[in-house]
Amino acid sequence: MRIDYYFSPLSTYAYLAGTRLEEIAARYGTEITYKPMDIIGLFARTGGTAPADRHPSRMDYRAQELRRWSKKTGLPLNPKPMFWPTNPAPASYAIIAAQDAGGGDMGKLVHGVLRACFAEEKDVAEDAVVAECLENAGFDPGLTLSGMLTGAETYARNTEEAVDVGVFGSPFYVCEDGEKFWGQDRLDDLEAHLAGTA
Asked: Is the peptide bond before 171 cis (omega within 30 degrees of 0)?
């Protein structure tokens, strides 16, 4: 079984997933294909609303949920990061390039980028920040530059694929057999599916 993991490096809930997807995949011998995508472009095409345009009642509830999930997962979270929103493309391109290059820990890289944004007050649009995340995960930090062209093409393709397969948010997990799971709060359901108990 393969899982296509659609996400944005600016997704708070992708951050709060931690490395649970990787832990689940390891238990079931499941391959993960990481597919960073343009979440704002996705919202525009699938009926979603960007956070800045949501009703205050929805944003108030979101703030409570983030606080609860941060406590539940033990992951430190700044609900209003200094550099959010920012340009997600540099980090997305680097993640794509790293996956193509191999040799490092993809889960550690993706979580490192998300942690930089939501817990470390770093701007993931800056090459130096992304290079540090690459290096910490065992990848060549030079991928911030060498992967730009291919990364841009794949990023656009990932977004198109996301629309085509019914993705409408982040994090979103699509199994090879077509089963879909939206949100870090559905990872237990994803595991049950892989185990054949759901």
From this structure: yes
